[in-house]
Automatic annotation (TrEMBL):
Nucleotide-binding is among the record's keywords: no
GO BP annotations listed: L-valine transmembrane transport
Subcellular location: Cell membrane
Residue ranges of the TM segments: 12-31, 127-149, 155-173, 185-218
Cellular component, GO annotation: plasma membrane
A Pfam family per the record: AzlC
Stated family: Belongs to the AzlC family.
Keywords: Cell membrane, Membrane, Transmembrane, Transmembrane helix, Transport
Domain of life: Bacteria
Protein name: 4-azaleucine resistance transporter AzlC
Membrane topology of the entry: Multi-pass membrane protein
Length: 233
């Protein structure tokens, strides 16, 4: 168990850095909106939806109607449908922790679970659980810190949201270096760029993911075959 925990902590260090910064930003903004730091703790504990939590701040202020809330929530978090599909079989084997694994599957956690190479002899289910658990703890800690320090921070915090982009870049680079077959990455980049051009910055994510999934499913056998061939070489 100690080795599993140590491995999980080591693997989640990049996420920890990003989540502490972004969680602090969320807690800070929530405090500025008039909510006690305990709200930051409760929201990060029960909602835990990253970018959606930032949108939630405007919801809590009562400036948006229920229909807009539903549509916005679906559009922002619809990408998680694709995350869940790829882990259906693995999560079925998680036993009692299965509901938590489904709940805690954020963008960064998904990226880690897809890319990790489990040390020989280590329980994959325990490793998956602790990676997910530690990531949420980092986010909760950052949220509480932001909520507590909200009235003490006087400097301009604009641009702090870029840390999420930086975190994705780090994870992408690590995945790129850990695999010999870069075709899926090229497909994802191409679909993202085309969707950005066609649908704009606010609406490109869902179409990009749909197109990427369709192409990857169509090329699945070729990608697997190419990966196996490169491993043999």
């Amino acid at each position: 168990m100690k080795e599993v925990i140590k491995t999980a902590i080591k693997l989640t260090i990049p996420v920890m850095v990003g989540y502490l910064v972004l969680g602090t930003a969320f807690g800070l903004l929530l405090y500025k909106a008039g909510f006690h730091f305990l709200w930051a703790f409760l929201i990060s504990l029960t909602v835990y939806a990253g970018s959606m939590q930032f949108v939630l701040i405007s919801f809590l202020q009562g400036t948006i109607g229920i229909v807009s809330i539903v549509i916005t929530t679906l559009s922002v978090n619809s990408r998680h449908i694709f995350y869940g599909i790829s882990f259906i079989e693995k999560f079925k084997q998680m036993g009692k922790s299965r509901p938590y694994m489904i709940f805690s599957l954020t963008d960064e956690t998904y990226s880690l679970l897809c890319s990790i190479k489990r040390p020989e002899g280590m329980d994959e289910k325990k490793l998956f659980f602790f990676i997910s658990f530690f990531n949420q703890m980092y986010w909760i800690l950052g949220s509480v810190i932001g909520g507590i320090l909200g009235d003490l921070i006087s400097f301009d915090t604009s641009g702090i949201e870029f840390s999420m982009t930086a975190l994705f870049i780090v994870i992408f680079v690590e995945q790129w270096l850990s695999t010999k077959n870069h075709l899926p990455a090229y497909i994802g980049l191409f679909c993202g760029i085309i969707s950005l051009i066609l649908f704009g910055a606010d609406n490109f994510l869902l179409p990009a993911m749909v197109i990427t999934v369709i192409i990857l499913m169509g090329l699945k056998n070729r990608i697997v075959k190419t990966e196996d061939t490169k491993d043999e070489v």
